[in-house]
Amino acid sequence: MFNARIHTDYIGLTALILVGLSWIIFCVIFRLRKRPPQAKEAKRDPVAKWGMVLQGCGFWLVWLFRRSDWWPISGWIAAEIILGTVAVALAYASCWLCYSAVKTLGKQWTYAARVIEGHELITGGPYALVRNPIYLGMFGLVVATGLVLAKWWALLLAIIFFLAGNQIRVRAEERLLREAFGPRFEEYVRNVPAFFPRIQ
User: Fold this and answer.
1) What angle do CA 141, 28, 140 make, to 5 degrees?
2) Which of 44, 57, 114, 186 has its CA 20 to 30 A from that of 82?
């Protein structure tokens, strides 16, 4: 019994460390990326900032409300291995998705909901799978972190907050894109899901 507990502790701790490292990578993607020349802004939607606040609450919840015993995820070795592996894989896949999306956007990427002069409708790379791959990657990090660290009720609340914030930001951004691209954007919306990829 004692040895089993030690094993689950180490498995959970390893998963937590690896997910924590993925957050460092996530921050590096946005902070240390090569920044293209600034483009002149054409239009912005200020409502999106409230969505950002709610998404931030989701991140905050999974980090603040930790399980009383930090490391074990479930207490069973088999479940520890499965959940830990899923969490780590999800975290790094999410980082890759964010990196790929930011790279694809180039100078058009920004925290704010805006369009710039000469804005292009990006439909390639990860944007061929979902219309909002960066938000999907951020959501994956919330879930991965919650699996290895948070109390279950906190993870559930984090998901609710994040998805609510995501909805606000997506609606604000897509209003701007509809105004800018009209029928071209509507066709893109019909063919590509907003958040979760379609399973063929």
Assistant:
1) 10
2) 57
Q: Find where tokens 């609450």 sit.
A: 57
Alpha-carbon torsion (51, 56, 59, 60), positive or negative: negative
Residue 149: Cβ within 10 Å count: 24
Question: Does the predicted TM-score (pTM) go above 0.85?
Answer: no
For the chain, what are the domain ranges? 2-191
- CATH entry 2.60.40.10 includes domain 2-191: no
Which candidate, 164, 178, 175, places its Cα nearest to that of 46? 175
- Give SS3 for 15: helix
**SS3 of residue 98 by DSSP:** helix
Tokens 């709610």 appear where? 54
User: What's the rounded Cα separation, in Å, for the pair 157 and 152?
Assistant: 9
CA distances from 167 to 66, 151, 153, 164 (A): 26, 24, 21, 5
